């Protein structure tokens, strides 16, 4: 079994880290450069930086902030938000990111995944999927533009397509669970993890250490991402890892 990864997430808006509930009611959580350095010291396995309003506002990711964050880190660093072309990927990777995360742009133009994978290798391409349960359709649907726009795509089918195009990893966020701290979406995570051959990062719903254990064992996730509980010091990366090791899980 591959070692499980714990990944703090920096949702950045206008140069500050923010956190909300189900993608709304955002509140300030600190400076991205300071938080990145803090998580690196704490033993985070990776860091994800998402410029959450870039696609919605139709602008590019903040390269200067990416450069500053990358300058503080010794761990892998994924950047997403407003990446719409191969040239955007080049700029972000040159600024110090190890991977790029594609969401809205990949849904609008799926061949972008293949272009990135062919040029940089699949290991650099993360496809982020914002998923929400649709009662009427009895399935999880894909949302874009920071969770603002529903699409006609079904989550598991889109995950499979993304991997077939060259995605090296899936970052799966449950919008229903986001910020609720009631646990990850286990059924959703398990379904996607079983459907694809690449690592799946579970996101949305982390509220305590037990939630990480459940998403790794029952949800079959390869990594788990969290924001609120780390930003507001409700627990730490170190404490989560110690707990998981105690449960016999393979942790870095």
Q: Any overview of this molecule?
A:
This protein is an alpha/beta fold and 252 residues long. The protein has a single domain, classed as TIM Barrel. Helix content is 36%, strand content 28%. The protein contains 11 helices and 12 strands. The protein has helices at residues 32-42, 54-57, 63-70, 86-94, 104-108, 111-120, 155-165, 186-195, 209-217, 228-231, 237-246; strands spanning 5-13, 16-21, 24-30, 47-51, 77-80, 99-102, 125-134, 139-144, 149-154, 169-174, 200-203, 223-226. Strands 1-4-5-6-7-10-11-12 form an 8-stranded parallel beta barrel, surrounded by 7 helices. Helix 9 packs across helix 11. The two termini are 12 Å apart. Mean pLDDT is 91; it is low at 55-59. Belongs to the HisA/HisF family. One of its GO terms (biological process) is L-histidine biosynthetic process. GO terms for molecular function: imidazoleglycerol-phosphate synthase activity; lyase activity.
